Amino acid sequence: MLNIDSIQNGIVIDHIQAGKGMRIYELLELGKLDCCVAIIKNARSSKMGKKDIIKIEGDLDINFDVLGFIDNNITVCTIRDGVLVKKENIVLPKRLKNVIRCKNPRCITSSEEGVDQVFVLCDEKAHRYRCLYCEQEYKHHE
């Protein structure tokens, strides 16, 4: 069995749906960090069967909207001096800003520089979002 050391100070992003860990790594731009980042893919889980886990050593502000957009069942654990000090459950964000891009070539976000990419949750059950400006629906497979 693979052994991953515990962290003394940092964040553990847990209960990520198996296979989505790398997408979170990319969207949070964790590759740009100058600290230790561990990605555990397909870890055994009694609750989920398989899951991904990301461990980040050091202080970091996490964009919870990115996490909630990818998988709103994620938990974020803050570790200080080797002890769990905070555990947060992620929720589906009502509004996304600069997380995803509108694919509509006629949208103002495609033609004007500096306009934020803003999407609003339109169907909570189906996790569907629409562009605030042009109403273009974002499809998760894009």
From TrEMBL:
Entry keyword Lipid biosynthesis: no
Entry keyword annotation includes Membrane: no
Q: Which UniProt keywords apply?
A: Metal-binding, Pyrimidine biosynthesis, Zinc
Q: Name one Pfam family in it.
A: PyrI
Q: Which domain of life is it from?
A: Bacteria
- Domain named Aspartate carbamoyltransferase regulatory subunit C-terminal is located at 96-141
- Which positions fall inside the Aspartate carbamoyltransferase regulatory subunit N-terminal domain? 2-90
List, alphabetically, the SUPFAM superfamilies matched: Aspartate carbamoyltransferase, Regulatory-chain, C-terminal domain, Aspartate carbamoyltransferase, Regulatory-chain, N-terminal domain
Question: Would you tell me the protein name for this molecule?
Answer: Aspartate carbamoyltransferase regulatory subunit
